[in-house]
TrEMBL record:
GO terms for biological process: regulation of DNA-templated transcription. SUPFAM superfamilies: Homeodomain-like, P-loop containing nucleoside triphosphate hydrolases. The keyword Mitochondrion does not apply. Transmembrane segments: none annotated. This is GAF domain-containing protein. It comes from Actinacidiphila oryziradicis.
Amino acid sequence: MTNHKACGRLLPSQYETTRRLTLRAASWKRAITSQPRQEDVAPLTDSDVPHVRSVRPNALAAARERFLTAGTVDSDTVRETIAASWRRSRTWNVRTNHVELAYDKNPNLESPLVNGAAPVLQRLREQMSDDAVSIILTDAAGVVLDRRTGDRRFERRLDQVQLAPGFSYAERFVGTNGIGTALEGGRATGVFGHEHYAEDLEDLGCAAVPVHHPVSGHLLGVLNLTCWSRDAGPLLLALAKTTAGHIERELTTLSGLREFALFQEYVRACRHSNGIVFALNNDIVMMNDHARQALAPQDQSALLGAAAEAMSGSKRTALDVDLPSGAKARIFCAPVHTDSGPAGGVVRARIVESPQGLLPDRPASHPLLPGIAGSGALWQRACDEVHAHYQAGEWITVRGEDGTGKVALLHAVHRRHDPAGHFHVLDAAEPAEPAEPAEAAEAAEPADSGSGSAGFLDRVRQELAEDNDGTLVLRHIDRLPPASAQALAVLLHQQRKTAGRTGRRRWVVATHRPLDHDDNLAGLLRNFPGSVEVPPLRHHIEDVRELVPHLLVKLASAGTLTCSPAAMRLLTRATWPGNIAQLREVLRKVVRRRRSGVIEPGDLPPECRSVARRVLNPLESMERDAIVGSLLDAQGNKNEAARALGVSRATIYRKIREYGIELPQ
Ligand SMILES: Nc1ncnc2c1ncn2[C@@H]1O[C@H](COP(=O)(O)OP(=O)(O)OP(=O)(O)O)[C@@H](O)[C@H]1O
């Protein structure tokens, strides 16, 4: 154990040395106020500000000891952020008594982050003069890229704990610490003294703030300030936030110049080519219409991947790429440079071979739909059918279990053709707004009393009366009482007649669950000549692999959250009775606790733990549904269910075991 650690442990009075703290605080205040645009500093929240000053350090040390020996956390002493990080550190089996890290001898020191941050770090270093504070920049994996320290003794201390260029301070290697915990939580984080998981770090205080790309929002790295724990305080975090803000502003300027240069080259290439053109760098992809039409999504990804690799050599390159569809493309990559470094590159591509023989630039068979994910056969069929009905202007019903993505699919088709057009959803399940008692008594139709359907009919009437083109979705029409369904049928019938006369084109779609019998809705359904079925998620379970990253990007916004193979295995084996809506809800719960890093099985809520033993193909999951349905009809009597399905008793027992079917007693 070093002397410094001994100081941190044995001399708690040092924590209270206000004179020294005041001196440091004055120096940091000077640095904060001398930075331009001070008004941009984000306000400190309770959870940002360490309360280690109000908690006695030996109480914190005792709380840490209790956690390490008994696994219990004293919530009065330990902040929730720290307790959560301690638990993660324990799951990763991080050593508590010694810091020894892997060394990356070639970290990327030419990245836009390093270039953009350099002048900001230099400015701050000059303002901090000889203070024992280290200004540290890491990449998104926590690998230290740049470290600037005024005080030699303090610098030697950081070398001892390998807080030095090339070493990763990710939580999974070091446990709770400013850099790693800020990366895990995706937010500004201070970690002070005994809050560190590793004993070696308990004499240090760190304030770390994630730095994001100003255009893509991707996490680029972390700006971290480290000092002796006894000197640390809320101002350290304020200064770290200000500095991270300045780095992001530098990046905005640099990336604006780079992206503009890339855009100019892209437009030039599009003008001179009537084929496929891409432009890309680490943060953005531009693609012409020809590329979107001619290539299936998986072929686009393969081409982009090959082009990105080819351009890492920063020379003009031509190469042939085998695509997942079986086609072969020839790509020509031209890197684009600016004074401030590489800006990406422009790629022109030609399909030179296709599975059917020579068929250049074969159009993609499925339309690309914005904002949704999924390429499983049943899901694609639903997409194609809805798309075809939209193009024909034919009114349809879209049926499917709750949360299968009916409205999401309609919105995507609408956006593909008419992105600026009017898209309106009226929900029959939504309660009516409360009316004034007198009005309500007058307005209520006898059959609708007590339901929200009167309000729904009014909203439909009002929407139809407005002179809009675009798309109108009537959601959950199966929840309407019979009289309201009839009234709606009359309303829509009149609308169709009027539209026929005036030629006004509004696409009306109704969504509902699968119907056992449609007597109540028969009149209403006659207004919709077409009908499309959206499959339950378990029938296109392979799409979970596409849906998870897609939904995580939306839910975690700024953070970069990925799913480990083990967690993905659990997600693809769950049965998802609530379909995509349930998957989204599960991921939302995960994101609430973790904004970046990797999702492990332990991060998933319990509903994902009871799963089939393997991924079922669509046919198998339909078979499982049929068995479950008939078991439910037969109140769990397996013989009766087997008879109804026309299979033997042995078969139904085998299938129940194979599919892991469990019915409530
Ligand atoms: N293919 C998809 N890709 C991405 N997100 C999707 C997809 N399908 C559905 N979602 C998301 O899942 C959630 C539920 O989808 P949506 O509301 O469209 O389902 P629904 O079938 O219309 O629901 P309901 O049965 O309640 O009417 C939404 O947040 C939606 O954005």
